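Exercise 7 asks you to align residues with tokens for two separate proteins.
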Amino acid sequence: MFNRTRIAGLQQQRGVGLVEIMISLVLGLLVTGAIVQIYLTTKRQNDMQTSLTGRQESGRFAAQIIQRDAQMAGYRGCLRDVNTVTNTLNTPTDFLYRYDRHVEGFENGAGLPGSIANVVPNTDVLTLRTVDDSGIFTTATLANASSDPVTVADLDPAPFAVNDIALITDCGGAAIFQVTGFDAPTGVIAHNQGGTVPGNSTKNLNRRFGAGSQVFAIRTTTYYIRNSANGTGPALWRRSGGIAAPQELAEGVENMQLLFGLDTDANQTADEYRAADNVPANQWRNVVSMQVALLVAGVADGVAEADPRTFTLLGEGVGPFDDGRLRRVVTFTVALRNRVA
């Protein structure tokens, strides 16, 4: 005789049906989709935040380093009159040694020397001629401006190397020369005629500089936009002098535009701002300030939608862009304090 209760229990233990499986799959897919969506949203937010942080840091650093050098451009100690500077180098009008132009710009990179290469098209180039403020003073008065070496205190480490370009200055005049020798124990800086390129055309500094005159290393530094060595697009580069290799400073700086403030009435205030190609060659010494606009982008593609905007940098339009990078314009004005003080 069959046990009907046992048969009923066996019937209740049937396997999972197709409907239940489909419902389970649908629910699983919904949960998985939600998890994936949360992951993608979080990743995009993280990518966007990383891009924003990188963009902000690149813009801040680029502005800071340009401002620092610009503020030192044309520094001659307590000397104000740039016309009283004697340049004893063989090639005083060469790009690297044209120290009568404390600042110089190149509109869209036009007119640059061959040493500044691979500039991104339609970007401006800035050259600043500055000193390294190392606080070195002479300890003896030149007995004869045409033959005496310059003597500074016994310094260690040596502040100058052979072939460095140096500036000696007091409140009455200044002279630029190439170091042909430096004796650290005595502090004697030789500036003999000749030497390697550029070399000195004369030993005569045209002035008897007294004890307490300041001596600086002087350099020509150029800032420009060039593609990053990391393959992430344009970046801000710097080249100092003619020997050292170019140095990449900040990724994501895609464009730089410049305007230069000319003092046209000798009151040490900018009366008008001009693009580099509208500054006459004999007026660079009258530049007392400049405006700089940088277009800065994150270096990651696809973190935002395509940007239909045209960014304006001091009147120059740039864009639109379809690479999904986050961009902003950084604009600042810097007074060349050694020309307006």
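Second protein for Exercise 7:
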Amino acid sequence: MRQVTVRQLQIFVEAARTRAFARVAERLHVTPAAVSFQIKQLESMVGFALFERIGKTVLLTEPGTALLGYAQTVLQALNDADQTLRALKGLSGGHVTVGLVSTSKYFVPHILARFQAEYPGVAIHLRDGNRREIFAAVGKGSVDLAVTGRPPEELGLDADPFAAHPSVIIAPPAHPLTGYDSLPPAILAGEPFIAREEGSGTRQLMDDLFQGTGTSGRVTMTSSSNETIKQAVMAGMGLALISRHTVGLELSLGLLRTLPVEGFPQMRTWFVVHRRGMPLLPIHRRLRDFVVERGQTIIAEMERSYAALNEARSLSGPA
């Protein structure tokens, strides 16, 4: 293994990902014969067949699977070293993979747009998923930074707070409860709710709400998609507890209303998260600091723009 080259590892990892030597040749700008030769050289050095060939498709053998994780770690370490050295030379380039839970994708692109305006040479890759998926990706190192709620302590992730996270009860504009100035939480007990899936932070918040009122919520529909939930509420299928950050535009256009329930909005906090014990590369640290220092301000500017849109719509009157 001491004689293995970086190029051989690159070809091996790419072949494991694409399962086709011809695609590896296209992506790495070499000939198919060169790909086959490098794989055979690597197999000779490790003493195992790394791929099983089935027609034009190649599948990893057990030794190949065992080697893949180490090869990916080596290539990632080299990439990290390259970015660190580039940063030390004063270059403004680099690459950051940012993880987003489903709710944070409504405002994080606005923050990243401001960041890229100041650091145009930085390439940003977005990866979204549920809380469990994003926390796991940060822990494995496939995501550099993530914007989420606070992670459980046992996951070994560092989390820096940067913005308030309000949640509200939304209803269609014609719903009878929208005509009140204040509503007790208990009045919601008989209402149909469209809820997030079990295990989501928003679903936990809703369950806590009903537990606090001594009632069980009447959940008539569940969805892992905020967009689906919004559309269901607009269609009159029920109410929903949802992050205000997901409905700013719909509220400004009059497509949804928030209910004046006592104790709302419920406030949580947004965090920018990274793997504990793993030093951040300079460009990752710069982005983390940017989010912490300016994230709340940028979100507030978004909310003011929605409020201005709502005011303009109100002044224009009915079409």
